[in-house]
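Fold tokens
===========
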Amino acid sequence: MNLAVFVITKGANEVITWQESNKALSRHLSGDWGDVCKEDWEANNEALKHNQRLLSSYKTETGIKF
């Protein structure tokens, strides 16, 4: 059994809505890492093969990055 833990920082949790966090989580689960650089995108794809940490970054509709 694989265990997945999803973490959102306190700061992000204070500025984004529940709907925005769910939308981001849906994107993350589908392999859309959002606004990360090419190297982080490739590192995520490699991490999937080894059950390692993934990094994603998104923006709200008003441009707040989280």
In short: The first helix runs from residue 10 to 15. The radius of gyration is 12 Å.
